[in-house]
Amino acid sequence: MNIDERLVAGIVNAVLSRMGDGADSSADADGGSCGVFESMDEAVEAAAAAQKKYLNCTMHDRAAYVQAIRDVVLDQENLSYLSRQSVEETEMGNYEHKLIKNRLAATKTPGIEDLTTEAMSGDDGLTLVEYSPFGVIGAITPTTNPTETIICNSIGMLAAGNSVVFSPHPRAKNVSLHLVRLINRALAEAGAPANLVVTVSKPSIENTNAMMAHPLVRMLVATGGPGIVKTVLSSGKKAIGAGAGNPPVVVDETANIEKAGKDIIDGCCFDNNLPCIAEKEVIVVDSAADYLIFNMKKNGAYEVKDPELIDRLVKLAVQENGKSPVTSFVGKSAKYILEQVGVQVGDDVKAIIMQTPEYHPFVQVELMMPILPIVRVPDVDAAIEMAIRVEHGNRHTAIMHSRNVDKLTKMAKLIQTTIFVKNGPSYAGIGVGGEGYTTFTIAGPTGEGLTSAKSFARRRRCVLVGGLDVR
């Protein structure tokens, strides 16, 4: 009999998670179960009490607690279970790419090393500027990247000295609560105050609203669509909003077209196009278009040429209002989407491409599925101008393939996106095959950019008059 080891690991983790729900083995004195509470008020109050205790911990302690989170996520059984369960519960993305993303969040999210101290000394003494915690942070996490966001937010927020109350998306409830429990057990073993990372047993809009309104929550962080970002920005509290994107890719005639074709498809199909950084539309100089399409098809793209079939895909993937994707197709594979319109393809097909005009719904709407429209333009300047228009001012992510430094510079200056990837796949912008740290909370609307521990901290000045200038 063949036994699937990953399935066994998943069953074991699920059983352990349910065992952890028992009041006799894991209930906290204040009524929580490994960080999971019945009401939002209980969760926030427990997090506030934990944060007060956390103020007495050393920076060495913080580093140890952050490492505990990294270690529990990187445990192979946990990593496999979280990645598989995320796909199965949300019905979005794919297992192999979830593994990459969860591992990335655990390994490349900055910890306490991000909290650098500034010092100024002179005849009048010594002044230090340091990063201090806000207190309790309320964090709203999406269904598209549920575990990745909890991992990177937990690391960054605890590194900055805060506690955090998570409000997960209801469609990712089980995997999110499982992860919160894993983190709490790991923190307890490391000696951390209980309830630094908490949530509620029944995530809902009502609980999210209660969290945002709670007076003990000092900061709000929303990773999601424009609606929730607008809500937190209207809360009257310090807020970080990580909103939508519609990343354009510009390809000019000087680009390495073979590499561009591969990079674009690799980026577009990554986790079935769920990341907001992923390539959403291609704008290519006409003289390079045919060879680019050839190389995209060579690397797993299926080209749809029949206008009637393209119209059927539009009706399938875009809501009638023409402004939003159909949720049931978000994060689905290219093969699955094509099957729904009667086209049978193999597993080697990773993305669906077609040539469209600029104002086609596939260009204008952020789909978050591996459907990639291609628009031809006469020259690179026209391509840059179009890219700025279709990015819709989100200031999220843009990509350009070119060997012309002047044009690369021009696009970077004019489009003003938080992430600008040159000659690589979009995911290089969050540290996959590119330099730099990672995050799944990319705050274009509020300007923090790629968030890290210092994004979740306050700058404070401490002044000593008349001493410690030893020069």
Walk me through the structure:
This protein is of the alpha/beta class. The chain folds into 2 domains: 5-243 and 450-461, Aldehyde Dehydrogenase, Chain A, domain 1, CATH 3.40.605.10; 248-435, 3-Layer(aba) Sandwich (Aldehyde Dehydrogenase, Chain A, domain 2), CATH 3.40.309.10. Helix content is 42%, strand content 19%. The protein has 17 helices and 18 strands. Strands 11-12-13-10-9-14-15 form a 7-stranded parallel sheet, with helices on both faces. Helix 4 runs antiparallel to helix 6. The N and C termini lie far apart (76 Å).
How would you sum up this structure in a few lines?
This protein is of the alpha/beta class and 471 residues long.
Topology of this protein?
Blueprint: H1 5-20, H2 23-26, E1 36-37, H3 40-54, H4 59-74, H5 76-90, H6 95-108, E2 118-122, E3 125-133, E4 136-140, H7 146-159, E5 163-167, H8 173-189, E6 197-200, H9 205-213, E7 217-223, H10 226-233, E8 238-242, E9 248-251, H11 257-269, E10 281-285, H12 286-298, E11 301-303, H13 307-317, H14 334-339, E12 351-355, H15 361-364, E13 371-377, H16 380-390, E14 397-401, H17 405-415, E15 419-422, E16 442-443, E17 449-450, E18 457-465
Parallel strand pairs: 1-6, 4-5, 4-7, 5-6, 7-8, 9-10, 9-14, 10-13, 11-12, 12-13, 14-15
Antiparallel strand pairs: 2-3, 3-18, 16-17
Helix pairs in contact: 1-5, 4-6, 4-7, 4-8, 5-6, 5-8, 6-7, 7-8, 11-12, 16-17
